[in-house]
Specification:
Keywords: Hydrolase, Nuclease, Nucleotide-binding, Phosphoprotein, Toxin-antitoxin system. This is DUF86 domain-containing protein. It comes from Lacihabitans lacunae. InterPro entries: HepT-like, HepT_RNase_toxin. Pfam families: HepT-like. This protein has one domain. By secondary structure, the chain is mainly α. The radius of gyration is 14 Å and the shape is elongated. It is built from 4 helices and no strands. The chain is 65% helix and 0% strand.
């Protein structure tokens, strides 16, 4: 179970940070032709500097409400270039 497994929680948090950093790099790349709505709000920035204040609710909100749209936008972009 997620809430009782510290290793799983930290792995999920770390993956969210990695996604946030990737989104940050995509949006800063000057030749990028992909737009990610709400890129500044997406994930990593919210938890990267709040290690002592990460709640399960914040993680859940990111996974359920904030990740699906950027994922969809990136997948659509990928399908256009393939």
């Amino acid at each position: 179970m997620y809430q009782g497994d510290l290793k799983t929680k930290r792995a999920v948090e770390r993956n969210i940070e990695i996604i946030g950093e990737a989104v940050n790099r995509i949006t800063k790349y000057k030749e990028s032709k992909i737009e990610i709505n709400n890129a500044q709000r997406v994930i990593g920035k919210r938890i990267a500097h709040e290690y002592d204040n990460i709640s399960d609710e914040v993680i859940w909100t990111i996974i359920i409400k904030e990740l699906p749209k950027p994922k969809e936008e990136i997948e659509e972009f990928k399908s256009q270039i393939n």
